[in-house]
Amino acid sequence: MGGGRGWSLSNDDLKKLEKIAKESLKKDAQPAKRNVFISFVYEDIKDVNMLRAQSKNENSDIEFNDWSLQEPFDSKRAEYIRRGITERIRQSSVTLVYISEKTADSKWVNWEINESIRLGKGVKGVYKGNVPPSKLPEAITKNKIQLIPWTQKGIAKAIEKAAEGKQ
User: Fold this and answer.
1) Which one is predicted more confidently, 79 or 58?
2) Which residues pair with 38 in a beta bridge?
3) What is the 3-state secondary structure (H, E, C) of 146-164?
4) Could you read off the pLDDT of 69-105 as tens digits, one per residue?
5) Sheet strand arrangement including 94-99
């Protein structure tokens, strides 16, 4: 008569396991933070830093990991800079282009947009105010990149759509 004895859980143990399983499922159902590369001209650093701060505020709808450059590359060698930026874009799922009156003339912003598209990343443009600047980077117009006004919900939704491949 061998009869191994099985084990059983108490009702309290079952309730604890059920609670753990529900919390795990709920956590898995929440969208993951997206890795975002922010393309901008350095003259707009104050606005971009405000956007970065909003992504860290727990009461904000904007939530992402910032993979953009915190400081400009300390080099005048264009190829070195391109390699560094390409790696940052590669690590991201979305490129968010901050658009101001100064952005249109930036060769680097145009290159970052085109590089993001080449690498298969979602790209969205964001601007402050009610109307986008009249002059836009060529890569924005050429690639028909969607522009959105700077609102927390709008940016959060745009990042999510771009990450899912919906332009």
Assistant:
1) 79
2) 96
3) CEEECCHHHHHHHHHHHHC
4) 555 545 567 787 888 889 889 988 899 999 999 999 8
5) 64-66, 34-39, 94-99, 122-127, 147-149
Fill in the DSSP letter of residue 125.
Answer: E
**Which ranges of 37-137 would DSSP assign to H, the alpha helix?**
45-56, 78-90, 107-118
Q: Per DSSP, what are the bridge partners of residue 96?
A: 38, 124
Give CB contacts under 8 A, 24+ apart, made by 142-145: 143/113, 143/114, 143/117, 145/97, 145/113
Instruction: Please list, in sequence order, all residues whose beta carbon lies within 8 angstroms of the beta carbon of residue 9, skipping any fewer than 6 positions away.
Output: 17
What's 35-163's CATH class? alpha beta
Q: What are the beta bridge partners of residue 95?
A: 37, 123
Distance CA 89, CA 50 (A): 21
* Token couple for 62: 């904007």
Q: Record the pTM.
A: 0.73
Closest CA to 106 of 69, 68, 137, 132: 137
